[in-house]
Amino acid sequence: MGELSSSTPNETLDVLGRVCPYPLVLAKKAVEKLSSGQILKILCDAPASAEDTIPRWCEKNGHKFEAVKLEDKGYWELFIQKT
After folding, report:
1. CA 37, CA 47: separation in Å to the nearest integer?
2. Which distant-in-sequence residues (6+ apart) come within 8 Å of 78 by Cβ?
3. Taking CA atoms, which of 32, 54, 60, 67 is between 20 and 30 Å from 12?
4. What is the rounded distance in angstroms from the CA atom of residue 77 to the CA atom of residue 7?
5. Global pTM?
6. Are 63 and 31 in contact (CB under 8 A)?
7. Distance between CA atoms of 79 and 46, rounded to whole angstroms?
8. What confidence tier does 76 reach under pLDDT thresholds 50, 70, 90?
9. Is residue 52 helix, strand or coil?
10. What are the CA-CA distances from residue 35 to residues 2, 24, 62 (Å)?
């Protein structure tokens, strides 16, 4: 496990069943509510969001990002630490 996924998240966002752009839009809103240093955990089953749009948004905005793909469950756990 990585640094973020081994930490207890401050908030959890479930976007299972949602497709682009909703996971990114909801993630942005959730991150806005966090304080600097807090961690958001996102449950996401949309490959484009988990592997592309959310990581790129985090990189662009300087937030730490980590993805854990749960093959057996068919979704990702995404961790974002607000900067």
Report:
1. 26
2. 27, 41, 42, 43, 44, 50, 54, 65, 66, 67, 68
3. 60
4. 13
5. 0.95
6. yes
7. 15
8. very high
9. helix
10. 21, 19, 14
Residue 7 Cα to chain centre, angstroms: 14
Rg (CA), the chain: 11
pLDDT of residue 74: 96
Is the confidence at residue 61, as pLDDT, over 90?
yes
Residue matched to tokens 């980590």: 66
Please state, for a pLDDT cut of 90, what percent of the chain lies above it: 95
Catalytic residues: 20
In sign, the C-alpha dihedral spanning 39, 10, 36, 30 is positive
